[in-house]
Amino acid sequence: MNILRSPKYYAALIWFVAGVGIQSNALAEADEIRIAQQWGIGYLPMAVIKSQELLEKNIKLKGLGTTKIIWAKFAGGSNMNDALLSNSLDFATGGIPPFITLWSKTNGENQVKIAAVMSQMPLYLNTNDPNIKTIKDFSEKDKIAMPAIKTSNQAVLLAIATKKQLGSEHVEKMNRLTVSMAHPDATLALINNNISASFSAPPFQYQQLRDPRVHTILTSKEIMGGPFTFTASWTTVKFRKNNPKLYEAYVISMSEAINFIKNNKRAAAEIYIKESKSTESIDELMEILSSPDVEFTNTPKAVMAYSEFVFQLGLIKRKPDKWQDMFFDNVHQYSGS
Q: Are 143 and 196 contacting, i.e. CB atoms less than 8 angstroms apart?
């Protein structure tokens, strides 16, 4: 009997094709990648990735074909975390405190970890009230704007400073003065005297200081005693497991963007102005990018110290044993802290 015409042959062939189909579906990665960022120059690597089409290039190099890239902007990290957990987002970006808060609450395939570090830079607490010299001078009539209350970089920094200067019992009192506001809106509100203070980030804090009525009363460098990771990007264990090539393309793109900024500051400044529609001049941005306190880097800085502060403030119930616990293994090669 001709084996090619036998029923057993056709049955085997059907099972083989079905098996290949199942395997192909199992190996298929997402046909889109959804990425969120916030406002400010701390997210410059994202602007470079978009402008230079780095992610498109690296996705293609990974052999993934056409993948739709969706970019979104959020005012704070908490909203992004909600989107990430609801599977409406693949990569969130922001400060370390909102990340740590989510890290401490997740586990298993839903565990979030940092895939890439982006920047370190100082943050300023500015006020338009000449009578406010330190945080001790704030009263119940004052409002302090920041990206998100309690969980943002600025919120945690203010809580740390309050605990050091006024005592733990004053932390919640200070929290009641804070309001969530995107940096551009906070800058306008401060200049228009609608709020008393803004704990912001570059370049908005410098825009605020161009108003002669505005002055700085506190900086992150004073609070932390040195540099710290300002912005990073995180995703879930599940996303990386299901989309290893997409994940790698994203991480590679971030590193390439950071290297581009280091080697092409002026071009990076031009990209930022175009992408963000910033009113900053090239010279003003170059001054920021050339500051020794501003660095775009893959290396985590002071994340363990931040974790300890967040734990002491009661924002998390578990803390990492080492900084590597909060990062995917591709970041472990750097000399973090």
A: yes
What is the rounded distance in angstroms from the CA atom of residue 216 to the CA atom of residue 212?
Answer: 11
286-316 pLDDT, tens per residue? Answer: 999 999 999 999 999 999 988 998 898 888 8
pLDDT in tens, 7-38: 554 444 444 444 444 344 346 899 999 999 88
Q: How remote is the C-alpha of 221 from its chain's centroid?
A: 19
Domain boundaries of the chain, sorted by first residue:
30-121+228-331, 124-224
Computed from CA positions of residues 311, 329, 122, 142, in that sequence, does the dihedral angle turn out positive or negative?
negative
Q: Do 69 and 56 form a contact (C-beta atoms < 8 A)?
A: yes
Closest CA to 97 of 159, 183, 187, 181: 159
For residues 96 and 229, the answer to whether their CB atoms sit within 8 Å is yes
As a whole number of angstroms, the distance between CA 198 and CA 183 comes to: 8
**Single-letter residue type at 72:** A
Q: At 322, is the secondary structure helix, strand, or coil?
A: coil
- The class of domain 124-224 in CATH terms is alpha beta
Rounded distance between C-alpha atoms, residue 248 and residue 161, angstroms: 38
Q: Which 8-state DSSP code applies to residue 144?
A: E
pTM, 2 dp = 0.84
Contact 324, 256 (CB under 8 A): no
Domain 30-121+228-331 and domain 124-224 have a common topology: yes
Superfamily of segment(s) 30-121+228-331: Periplasmic binding protein-like II (3.40.190.10)
Nearest to 337 by CA among 326, 329, 328: 326
Do residues 190 and 198 lie in contact, with contact meaning Cβ atoms separated by under 8 Å?
A: yes
What is the C-alpha to C-alpha distance for residues 225 and 175, in angstroms, rounded to an integer? 22
